[in-house]
Design a protein that fits this description.
Chain lengths: ~200, ~200
DNA sequence: ACCTGAACACCGTTCAAGT
DNA sequence: ACCTGAACACCGTTCAAGT
């Protein structure tokens, strides 16, 4: 009796999964015009909903962006994890695979990457659980490298930060001349991985 | 006879050097609230001028930001140059000095740094002359390192990009735990320089 | 519970006008 | 030449109201 499921003659009052739809529409708009040009009004229009609907699910625009950011870090951590597990078992192979995964993620998901790492000292990034997970994967790899004597002894967190900074710099500065969405910076990333591994090895 | 210089009984009609004053006020506001919160109106108010005055000197807000950015790169290149010339003459010392200068600039001039490297794939950074100069200083140092056999042979531009990416990543991610405006990340930067130099040395 | 419309205090930018 | 004021088309966000 309750009119819960209409046979879609008109799009239902509820939107099924509005939060997810808003995040998705937001990502597509960022990809097209950049975060700076993102407006709640346009997201709403794209999803077919009032400009105010977002406020039922997110406290404000910053909160929506935080959700986009966290979803990005989750995907990102998955990509790193997958690259690691698919790679051979030596430290050098794992490092290279993860470096590729990092740079490739930046190239393939520019909108997510832009939100995840948009930089300002004033809105200091609240710590992201998924971001911490991603870093943990890298740090674990470093520790294994130390056990197999591929990496010098020392603070594995510091060593992991160094590696993170390297690949992050490459991604942000788009320094790989052969960096394209589908064939991500092959030569330059390989070059960096090799030099990094050499530096890490020495005691 | 012409009323050109009044004895400052009221602030003169012209502002002396309005463009420089606008850039300066902009920097201070960015430092306080971030680029995102920067408004032409507030800059104008701060300088004591109408919100429209900026349009006499800059074509729009983006153009003012570009001027800020370029000024930042000029200061930045100077800082690198100075660090290089003050350092000892070995490659290792120069590399370390420049790494410090990079990270310290980011820490001491957060507003400039934010504008210089604010990231979006959609407003692809127009090439900056001063930015190119800064990169050139680094690349020259790499070439000298190759001549003194401190750095492996190979494409010096690629090698310089690698170093740039490393220090840039450190600066952006604020990975140095001991990074403060005045005592910039001493231990971590030293750590990175050493590992980097080791990796660069090997053939 | 979930969504909407009108209203408010902001933006950047254009344009005609002042000195 | 350099600056201003009013006006326009946008924002994010609040609030009372609709289903």
């Amino acid at each position: 009796m309750t009119p819960e499921r209409n046979s879609a003659k008109k799009r239902s009052y509820h939107h099924g999964n509005l939060p997810a739809a808003l995040i998705d529409a937001g990502l597509k708009l960022i990809e097209k015009k950049g975060v700076r040009a993102l407006t709640l009004r346009e997201i709403g229009a794209r999803v077919g909903v009032s400009r105010m609907a977002a406020y039922r699910h997110f406290s404000d625009k910053a909160d929506l962006l935080a959700a986009i950011r966290e979803a990005g870090f989750a995907q990102f951590a998955d990509a790193l994890e997958q690259a690691r597990s698919k790679a051979g078992k030596t430290f050098a192979l794992r490092l290279k695979a993860m470096a590729f995964a990092y740079v490739r993620f930046a190239a393939e998901h520019p909108a997510h990457f832009e939100v995840m790492f948009s930089w300002s000292p004033h809105q200091p990034t609240p710590p992201s659980p998924a971001g911490a997970r991603a870093f943990g994967i890298l740090e674990k790899t470093i520790r294994e490298g130390q056990q197999s004597s591929d990496v010098r002894q020392g603070d594995s967190v510091m060593l992991a930060r160094l590696v993170w900074a390297q690949v992050h710099g490459v991604s942000m500065l788009r320094l790989a001349p052969d960096l394209t969405p589908k064939g991500a910076g092959t030569r330059f990333v390989e070059f960096c991985s090799e030099i990094l591994a050499t530096g890490l090895a020495q005691t």
